[in-house]
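Practice problem: predict the structure.
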Amino acid sequence: MKALVFSDSHGYIKNMIKAIDHFKDEIDIIIHLGDYVDDVSELLYLYDIPIYNVAGNNDFTNIPNEKILNIENNKIFITHGHEYNVYFGADRIYYRLKEIGANIGLYGHSHTPFALADDDIIILNPGSISYPRRFPNPSFAILCIDENISYKFYKIEDDMIENFKI
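Answer:
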């Protein structure tokens, strides 16, 4: 199972379309971590790929700010991150995962890519697909869930999609 993970599109879907078109034969689901849920509606219109999403601090909707997904015997916590003070680190996300028994946490909000793998827990922030901060390019992640869990970060630069490490 491969998930394409986006956050913070803020009404600009061009880069999400580039990423989906590039990986559409490899991905099974899309996860959007908030800030603008309306962008998800446009993607659902364009693609026949399941999309899971949460609301962000700039979304005024009834969609929850966090959800738990059960995929391939993994408990995945998704949130935008604004309610977890993520500008000051991922500690609160980490303790939330421990509290609920999740092994994967996905969040956005900071617009900066981040990864932590510790104690059988993985925490990822894909960065912003549209408006990066403290990182020069729009970015996203692919999360691979099978017998092992792995992830890769990608950036969009001059209409090219390239893998990068943080």
